[in-house]
User: Fold this.
Amino acid sequence: MKKLILGWMLALGAATGALASGGGIPLDKAPKLTNDMAALQNGAKVFVNYCLNCHSASFMRYNRLTNIGLTERQIKENLTFTTDKVGDTMNAAINPRQAKEWFGAQPPDLTLVARSRAGAGGSGADYLYTYLRTYYRDATKPTGWNNLAFPNVGMPNPLWELQGERRPVFDKAESHGHEVEVLRGWEQTKPGTLTPAEFDRTVGDLVAFMQWMAEPDQNNRVRLGVWVLLFLCVFTLIAWRLNAAFWKDVK
Assistant:
């Protein structure tokens, strides 16, 4: 049992990195919701309920969530564990000593995963959005789950109750003289508590929160950058005209 859990946790750590290339499938484009306060608040709730049990976000404090429109009272009542304070960092519910004993290593911290997993195939948000939506049942795997974006993944589907169970449907195609399987779609074999459209929105909210968490000031940075570029454009025009006026009488 310990070997199984250890294998699952080691694969879990690898899973957070391998999807940057899409695992052989194109990455789906994540919705841009980092300016949507309602989406970020729902994403924070999903993160606390489904991710924070095993994973920490140790570079983020609960009270920073006031930046997405939550009050400290709402954070305390809805998002923290009973022993946590609003000023504490978002640490996993699992005991670190027990996690190391059971799994051989602590589950990876997720604070910066939305930034660190960007690659040529897409952004870190695209990576997370694709990964969380391409799980399917596979009885040949120890955990009973597999993932199209990360084949042979060791982490079971954390959102399976919401998504239900699905199986991928493939078509045959030829590529460079070889027959390959191309994903045509999904067949729902067991319904979840959410419809497919609702589940996609929920994952989009979760990914948006993780993207915001990785860089809380990114929207301010973008807005400030626009003003800086506008200032430089105006200053360039002024400098050009001053230069022309200074040299106009010089032969």
User: Anything to note?
Assistant: The chain has two domains: 2-216, 222-251. The chain has a mean pLDDT of 85. Residues 2-216 form a domain with the Cytochrome Bc1 Complex; Chain D, domain 2 fold (CATH 1.10.760.10).
